[in-house]
Hints:
By secondary structure, the protein is mainly α.
Amino acid sequence: MTAPANVTKPTLLASTMRIFDLSLGQMLWSRRSMLLAFLVGAPVLLAAALRIASSADRLGLPRIHGARVGGAALFGMMMWLLYIRFIVPVLGVFYGTSLIADEVDDKTLTYLFTRPIPRAAVLFGKYFAYLACTVLLVLPSVVLIYLLLGPIGGTLGEAFPTLVSDLGVLALGLTAYGAVFAFVGARLKRPVVIGLVFAFGWEPAVLLIPGYLKRLTVAYYVQALVPHAMPQNSVVSQLMQALADAPSLPASVVALAVISVVALWLAGRTVERREYVLEQ
């Protein structure tokens, strides 16, 4: 008997969803989940310690010009210093660069590419699994921090608009950083090193330099969405206020969306065309 001549090939969307289902469980139980658990759990423990210290009134909470810092200010500083400046880029680097690089290192990419699905669907499915994994764990940790710090020196509802704004900004940041580093991981060797240099070397340096180079960073648009969270008394904030011309909120959202779509498209195109050599 001969095989049917017109075998229906799965569509890109259907193939992406299959890889998503396969990758999500693997990602949640991978070694990188320990990094995610630490990054998500440490700020929550810090917020709990601040809440206990405030309730017991034994440890002096931070003060600015002699005034005790309230829960809304503490929440904003934690969002800025821990999440926006550190956790979101780190997750983008370590998860985004690994989407294809891990399959190459483990020599399992061949098994995925021999399936009758578009090669780009492998990257797209793993990218959306990364996004679901990080968003579903990072955002609830932010809500817990809000519930812990909100009542300190004020009412719980005082910082609620800030909470909603920060949740959206974190989701956009994870989306954009993940897409950019997915392309880096699909295109370059040693992607983790390059990603760390970009996120913690190139971006902070360029943001302090006058000119248009800052527009080639993700942080420029992410930080423009959270001006309330920037510590106003820091040297970095004063330099950025003096040098930076922050884009508007709509422009930042559109820019992050464009960065995400273009980077993900380039990553998928790279996977479709590149021949990956598995080292023995």
